[in-house]
Amino acid sequence: MPRTAKRPLPSGTLLPSRVFAVASALVVLGLGVLWLTSGLAAMCVSAACVGVYLFLYTPLKTQTWTATLVGAIPGALPPLIGWCAGYREFGFGAAVAPGGVALFMLMFVWQLPHFLAIAWMYREDYARGGHAVLPVVDKSGVKTSIVIAVFTVLLIPATISPVIAMPRVLGPLSLFTAAVSGLLFAGLVARLLKTRTREHARAVFFASIIHLPLLLVVMVLDAFVRTFF
Prior knowledge:
Structural class: mainly alpha
Shape: flat
Distance between the termini: 51 Å
Largest sheet: none
Mean pLDDT: 95
Radius of gyration: 19 Å
Number of domains: 2
């Protein structure tokens, strides 16, 4: 893929065997640090994150576009790792607490419009790289635009769900930001659904990387103000 050809592994700057050895050591070390400092639940969720990415998502990428759904799982688990670390006294119960689950779902749903917009822009690269992402197998872009639209609709309740799950720390400010940013993002996706152009896919991509950080920053500020003032 030309887009990634200059990265260390594709360019040959680093050997796969050396990367594997260093990465394995870092995984083991990282899991150990999490266990000691953040509890067994946080460590296990982190191990699941690594396992799903390596042993499910990675081999599936060249087989089926549904690998994107599988890959969204490890992409959404980091907030749940943090949640388990923050509530380690609840053990594994923290992993299924409403607040942690809401953050997981928010991250999971957001990734589909975000990634598919990237894949749409670089579908020729993905095809040359042998990746069976949806825009590669969906030549017309109709199915891709529909999947983006479906997950964008799901994103609106997903962005609101943390407010419902954590009413003591999140309030009207987070709710308003989630609703307005979600509707604005949906407007860009609706345009893409109609035109199916690279230009509008690019607009959806950039909107996605503004939408999520904006929402998370507002949530943090909202929680801070409501907790300490």
